[in-house]
Design goal:
With 367 residues, this protein is α/β, with parallel strands linked by helices. The chain has twelve helices and 15 strands. It is globular, with a radius of gyration of 22 Å. 46% of the residues are buried. Bound molecules: N-carbamoyl-L-aspartate and zinc ion. Zinc ion (ZN) binds next to loops. The site of N-carbamoyl-L-aspartate has 11 residues, from loops.
Length: 367
């Protein structure tokens, strides 16, 4: 008798422990959009598109294919190939962009605008990053195109780094602001400009100093990591992207901007898949793949900063408003629970190594 009483008193606290088990933290937000995404082409599309489509309603699709997407006709055909790669149970809208070259004409910009399929044009300084060889060699070469874009209210997306080999690779963004972007914004103050994947305090300060036509995207890797990640215990090619990770003070500045709620700052993963062997090479490609946890990584960064309440503004509201598009009507739910990222995902006939491969992500997207 006594024994059984003893057991029941032992059981009681156990039962209570069960009831008082830590409640899982969940967060429901309006479905986000990705305002900067690389999905490549061909076989790779069906490997990467489902990751994005599970989480995001729309994404701005980068045009840096080889050869690049320089015309509305090419963008329209590319859009069809992307749509074919969307799993039948998912709703996802690719927002296409044109790749600007020295030869882009105002007539092409007008065609892009009239098509209703093109949401922006991308400026890659020639040689700045992956597949930028056909990019712009002199900023004045695109003045006629920029004038047409301003007139048609087609945003300009900017890879903001100078290519001058005399400039230290860690200073290329700041020098780009001084030499190119500040004068460009002054010359075309009504042109909507997205300063893509900003990485420095200088960029944050510059964006804040501009009018409301100029906004910026911020990637998950630049919110979560500083440049130490590139050299942690050895050379880490899967942390190499452009613009390259910067020192901790810059990460802090980006985090402050992201959690500030300021409508100028919004989500753009810059998820950029490359085959494993292209990355693990004597001359490895720039690009980090993050689409498999494209919203979860931001949840981690905002959570660590104690600002989960600002995630929806950054991920689901600011970008749509900047582009003049409706905010999505459905929601996603995130749960604070560890899961392990696989060592690799397929990429067509090859494989890619995702961000956090073999390691834990602390948030999970459950719907
Ligand atoms: C991108 C890619 O691989 O296409 N790479 C990267 O490091 N971000 C190009 C780009 O956005 O610079
Ligand atoms: Zn990019």
């Amino acid at each position: 008798m006594q024994k059984s009483d003893a057991i029941s008193t032992i059981n009681r606290p156990l039962h209570l422990t069960h009831c008082a088990q830590p409640v899982t933290t969940t967060l429901t937000i309006i479905r986000p959009d990705d305002w900067h995404l690389h999905v490549r082409d061909g076989e790779a599309l069906s490997s990467v598109i489902p990751h994005t489509a599970q989480r995001f309603a729309r994404a701005i699709i980068m045009p840096n294919l080889a050869p690049p997407v320089t015309t509305t006709e090419l963008a329209s055909a590319y859009r069809q190939r992307i749509i074919r790669a969307i799993p039948p149970n998912m709703h996802f809208k690719p927002l296409m962009t044109l790749y600007l070259t020295d030869q882009t004409t105002p007539a092409e910009i007008k065609r892009a605008h009239n098509s209703g399929l093109i949401y922006a044009c991308k400026l890659y300084p020639a040689g700045a990053t992956t597949h930028s060889e056909s990019g712009v060699t002199r900023i004045d070469a695109i003045y006629p195109a920029l004038e047409a874009m301003q007139a048609h209210q087609l945003p300009l997306l900017v890879h903001g780094e100078v290519v001058d080999p005399d400039i230290d690779v860690f200073d290329r963004e700041q020098v780009f602001i001084e030499r190119i972007l500040a004068p460009l914004h002054q010359r075309y103050p009504q042109l909507r400009i997205v300063f893509e994947h900003i990485t420095t305090r200088a960029a944050v300060d510059f964006v804040l100093s501009c009018n409301d036509k100029l906004g910026a995207t911020i990637t998950p890797q630049h919110l979560l990591y500083n440049r130490n990640a590139l050299f942690h215990g050895g050379l880490r090619p899967h942390f190499y992207c452009l613009p390259v990770l910067k020192r901790e003070t810059h990460r802090q500045a980006l985090l402050e901007a992201a959690i500030s709620g300021n409508p100028k700052f919004f989500l753009g993963t810059d998820s950029a898949p490359h085959g494993k062997h292209q990355k693990e090479s004597a001359c490895g490609c720039a690009g980090i793949y993050s689409a498999h946890a494209g919203i979860e990584f931001y949840a981690e960064a905002f959570d660590a900063a104690g600002s989960l309440d600002k995630l929806e503004t950054f991920a689901s509201l600011n970008g749509a408003r900047f582009y003049g598009l409706a905010v999505n009507t459905d929601t996603i739910t995130l749960e604070k629970q560890d899961w392990t990222v696989p060592a690799e995902y397929p990429l067509g006939n090859s494989a890619l190594v995702p961000l956090r491969a073999g390691d834990n992500v602390h948030w999970r997207c459950i719907t």
